[in-house]
Amino acid sequence: MAKIKSVYVCQACGGMSAKWQGQCPNCEAWNSMEETVEDKPSTNRFQSLAKAAPKQRLAVIEAEDLPRISTGVDEFDRVLGGGLVTGGVALIGGDPGVGKSTLLLQAAARLAEQGRAVAYISGEEASDQVRLRAQRLGLGRAPVQLGAATSVRDILTTLSAGTPPALAIIDSIQTMHSDLIEGAPGTVSQVRASAQELIRFAKERGTAIVLVGHVTKDGAIAGPRVLEHMVDTVLSFEGERSHQYRILRAIKNRFGAVNEIGVFAMTEKGLKGVSNPSAIFLSQHAEPVPGSCVLVTLEGTRPLLVEIQALLDMGGPSPRRLSVGLERDRLAMLLAVLHRHAGVACMDQDVFVNAVGGVRISEPAADLAVLLAIHSSLRNKPFARGVVAFGEVGLAGEVRPAPRGQERLKEAAKLGFSTALVPAANAPKKPIEGLRIVPVSRVEDAMAWARE
Ligand code: TYD
Ligand code: MG
Q1: What is the pLDDT of residue 217?
Q2: How far is the centre of ligand 1, averaged over its atoms, from the C-alpha of 190 (Å)?
Q3: Residue 5 has what pLDDT?
Q4: What count of other Cβ atoms lies within 10 Å of the Cβ of residue 449?
């Protein structure tokens, strides 16, 4: 009998070790190594007899050749780079309850209505539950093949019978189980093996597959980063459950741009695409309030106007710096720049900043708006109505230009804003109708303007 070899696999990063260790030698996580029987001899015995792959000539492929399937959910197609690619595998991650299953069910139904074969396999809900949800969404009549299964072998056998479907949705990869290796579903090695089998099927049969992945507390797609390397596209579905809006973002895309986003609103009839999202992240104040500044940010190809709010309050001996939707490290840096270069001290203040509407902003062009909001809260004086700002702030106190300044300014003008604080290098050569431009090249200029 062949010897059964066991290895220890880190559940956090997928790193392997021949012996058990308290700390993963790869990612240094504690208590994450679990024993796994890597190869079950019974299924692998004949592997060496498998015929060698036939040698193939390298084909010349052009990008336009990619056969795309439009899902009929425009915002989803946009993020995918124009639709699903046959044989492409996408992973979609997001917090529980953000709407992953809802989005995919809607896409599946739209495709099925176009006459394509679509399979929706749920490892989390019974088929009846999925059907009820489809009915509630008004999609009950779409001919989607629903299945509740967790065994990858069963799923692949079913999908291979007859013509393979154009799209198969696996909800979620953490519930899937491959009998090629041992271990409970959800462990790194199971997730990896299940995904490998599904990906092989997709490539061989031309079925597009979308895998749902759970995310961990810190927002990584659960456990296996390895999964992100294996699939063609990684999407992240973001949004606060308490807010209406959701953003679908491409993090990796072998078939399209990664900076594209899709915006959805969660309604009682499911997710609705928001085709013109620029003004949804503004709160409606009757009167201008202190501590608020509107930022023109750029998400993918679309400018968005987002209200940045700041609140400064007398803090204790070690004041807090907290941010929601913005990076906290960057906030600490900005406060230091504000002090050193503009003489505005907030050392004794708790500082809270927030991007309205549950958006997450990662671009440094938010800096100027953050500083203006902080300054306004500190002095308890609001800006006049109609002010927007953008620009990156450097450690030397300089205000650096942001990409595609013209587009941002045009969008602000279109939405009725009247004054824009912009990096001097972004000041337009031709005036933009209805918009007064205040070019600033240093933080102190911006603060001097704010004091007036
Ligand atoms: P779901 O798609 O199950 O989330 P995930 O698969 O990412 O865990 O979404 C569930 C949430 O969406 C749930 O909290 C209720 C809400 N929802 C609506 O508001 N309207 C709807 O039509 C549906 C189907 C769900
Ligand atoms: Mg779900």
Answers
A1: 61
A2: 27
A3: 74
A4: 16
Q: Does the pLDDT of residue 233 top 70, yes or no?
A: yes
pLDDT at 1: 52
Q: What is the pLDDT of residues 334-362, one digit of tens each?
A: 999 999 999 999 999 999 999 988 888 98
Instruction: Give the largest CA-CA distance in the chain.
Output: 85
Provide the mean pLDDT of the chain: 88
Predicted TM-score (pTM) of the model is 0.77
DSSP for 157-177, written as a single string: HHHHSSSPPSEEEEE-GGG-B
Q: Assess whether pLDDT exceeds 70 at residue 39.
A: no
The three-state secondary structure class of 352 is strand
Phi, psi of 226 (to 5 degrees): -55, -35
Q: Where are the alpha helices (DSSP H) in 139-282?
A: 152-160, 188-205, 226-230
Structure-token pair, residue 135: 């009915």
CA–CA separation, 119 vs 157, rounded Å? 13
15, 9 Cβ separation under 8 angstroms: yes
Q: What CA–CA distance (Å, rounded) separates 383 from 386?
A: 8
Selection from 308, 214, 301 nearest residue 259 by Cα:
301
Which secondary-structure segment (H or E) carries 120? strand 118-122
Mutate to test the pocket of ligand 1, among 102, 139, 214 (most ligand atoms within 8 A of CB): 102
Q: Quick check: CB of 99 below 6 Å from ligand 1?
A: yes
- Between CA 27 and CA 186, with CA 170 as vertex, the angle to 5 degrees is 35
Q: For atom 12 of ligand 1, which residue has the closest CA?
A: 99
Residue nearest to atom 11 of ligand 1 (CA): 97
Q: Inform me whether the pLDDT recorded for 49 exceeds 60.
A: no
- Residue 430 burial (C-beta neighbours within 10 Å; 0-12, 13-18, 19+): exposed
User: From the CA of 150, how far away is ligand 2's center (Å)?
Assistant: 14
Rounded to an integer, the average pLDDT of 48-65 is: 58
Tens digits of per-residue pLDDT, 62-94?
655 678 999 999 999 999 999 999 999 999 998
178 token code pair = 């491959």
What are the structure tokens assigned to 280, written together?
């949804």
